[in-house]
Amino acid sequence: MTAQASHTFAIVDDDKRVLEGLRELLESVGYAAKTYRSPYSFLTSGDLTAFDCVITDIKMDTMDGFELEQAVRGQEPGMAMILMTGRTDIEDKGYAGADDHRVFMRKPLNSRALLQAITRLLAFPR
Questions:
Q1: pTM of the model
Q2: Residue 116 to residues 41, 57, 121: CA-CA distances in angstroms?
Q3: Closest Cα partner for 56 from 91, 24, 10, 121?
Q4: CB neighbours of 31 closer than 8 A, spacing ≥ 6?
Q5: Burial code of 1-29, b = ≥16 C-beta within 10 A, e = fewer?
Q6: What is the pLDDT of residues 36-80, one digit of tens each?
Q7: Domain 8-122 is found in CATH 3.30.70.270
Q8: SS3 assignment, position 86
Q9: Among the residues of 11-79, which ranges form H helices?
Q10: Which residues pair with residue 36 across a beta bridge?
Q11: For 62, which DSSP code?
């Protein structure tokens, strides 16, 4: 599966291993990716408009993924978002509908399911 190099992802997670693993996966299929260790560093970077999709953990110390999504949508309402969680009470919903720019995925992520969800998310206009 080869991606279009024109798509760029922001990955926000406080776990360095997750950041590096996702960055390597995305780059291996031709996407560009930039990692951020905190929601604050991402939001203050000034890079938001450079991305086609934000992949973030839900549970982080300083700001959770839902708060980050709200902040992102305040500036870019149609931004594609993938929210990851290790929680078992959130159903894995690796899909996006016509008006849905958000996907939930449970950790550990299934690489194939993640890439399929990305393809569907990027198919919808911003």
A1: 0.89
A2: 28, 18, 9
A3: 10
A4: 3, 4, 5, 7, 8, 9, 118
A5: eebeeebebbbbbeeeebbebbbebbeee
A6: 999 999 999 999 999 999 999 999 988 999 999 999 999 999 999
A7: no
A8: coil
A9: 16-28, 39-43, 65-75
A10: 12
A11: S
